[in-house]
Amino acid sequence: MIMYKKRRALLLDMLHEMYPEVERGVVVFFAGFEDSRYIFRQESSFYYFTGINEPGAVTCLYWDGREELFLPKYSRAREQWATTASLGGHSFDMKSLGKPCQSYYMKPFFYEDEYENVIKDLKDYLGKQGLLLTLLDQSNDSYFFPIHRFENLFSCMSLIAEQVADISPMVASLRRKKDDHELELLSQAIEVTKKAHLAVAQTIKPDMYEYELQAEIERVFTKQHAQIAFPSIVAAGKNSTVLHYMDRDKKLQKGDLVVVDIGAQVGLYCADMTRTYPVSGLFTDRQQKVYDIVLELQTYIASRAKPGSFLQNSAVPERSLHHMAEQFLEERGLKQYFVHGIGHFLGLDVHDVGDLGIPLGVGDVITIEPGLYFPKENIGVRIEDVFVITHEGCKKL
């Protein structure tokens, strides 16, 4: 758990430097919530700084160096209903959030009495001059519940706007650069995803259904003790031209292409890899031509990705990988058939946090995923791989 403590210490050092006039400050992170319909998935920034996979918790990092973990109190014996995380080895002082919640799990609503202890502690420490810092990026939908909880906390504490600060840009900058441990987990997720793609390549044939390929993919994930990083995209024929197609109910026909866009999740770190397969085992001449252009484009962009370039930045198109891709395709009369970005950041989230306006740096992990889509021809081709930016350029993971 030393790694997580170092991350917290680094964050506080950066904040002390940014707010030298502040004498009392507290960083607050909120854990994710359970939902009986889905496997619990911890809120990524909470996990990044704590390594704790317990739902409903609140972490407070105080200016004076104290680290407190507030855990929900339950009205039912939780161990009879749910698996709880091991909290051994952590340096937090552990306290209960407040009065018992109504069940064996916390619901994503804010009842003041269930949070009364953390409210009291924060009030006592901050007074009328302290600063409360948290994640308030309204453009990031993964922060919806943390923002909702914070707004209620803010109201209960009667704070004024000047006592609140958004630290999501700083957190995003820290999460962008992956350390060796993160790269290892990403590599493991990628290896599992590669095995699933190999299974697809060996299984695919005419008259199968898309959902049968999905089942084979997710069988491999489960057998490798991994989870899905996002709903698997298996899109055949005309569906291959729909970027986030999810129905998976079409029968594969001879002559079809199948876009398989999948990712395993290992230790909460996500892979994201796409391949395009011919159902009949061989591409038609037209399909091969489109495929070759997409593959050539990916190779070209990978050769241009390096520190100082951008994933997408219209202010400096000569250094923007997306604009380079558009220029490549425009020269071939194909720009209008490329309808999405050239890639995205990857890490704890499939579309990981990161400011596109900040140049790529060593340790950034990105996807490069060119694609061409021709709905009238039922041809969609996308190829996607994961790369880490290095001092020399980039390396395919």
Quick summary of this structure?
With 397 residues, this protein is an alpha+beta fold. The chain has 2 domains: 2-176, Creatine Amidinohydrolase, Chain A, domain 1; 180-396, Creatine Amidinohydrolase (Alpha-Beta Complex).
What does this structure look like?
- The protein has 397 residues and is an alpha+beta fold.
- The chain folds into two domains: 2-176, Creatine Amidinohydrolase, Chain A, domain 1 (3-Layer(aba) Sandwich); 180-396, Creatinase/methionine aminopeptidase superfamily (Creatine Amidinohydrolase, Alpha-Beta Complex), CATH 3.90.230.10.
- It has nine helices and 17 strands.
- The chain has helices at 2-18, 44-50, 116-126, 144-157, 168-176, 180-203, 210-223, 285-304, 321-330; strands spanning 25-30, 58-62, 67-71, 93-96, 131-134, 164-166, 227-228, 233-236, 257-262, 264-266, 269-270, 273-278, 365-368, 371-374, 379-382, 385-389, 394-396.
- A hairpin with a 2-residue loop joins β10 (264-266) and β11.
- α6 crosses α7.
- The longest helix has 24 residues, at 180-203.
- It is globular, with a radius of gyration of 23 Å.
Class by alpha and beta content: alpha+beta
Number of strands: 17
- What is the CATH architecture descriptor of the largest domain? Alpha-Beta Complex
* Share of residues in helices: 25-40%
CATH homologous superfamily title of the largest domain: Creatinase/methionine aminopeptidase superfamily
Low-confidence stretches: none
Which key features would you list for this structure?
single chain, 397 residues, alpha+beta, Creatine Amidinohydrolase, Chain A, domain 1, Creatine Amidinohydrolase, 2 domains, six-stranded mixed β-sheet, three-stranded antiparallel β-sheet, 9 helices, 18% strand, globular
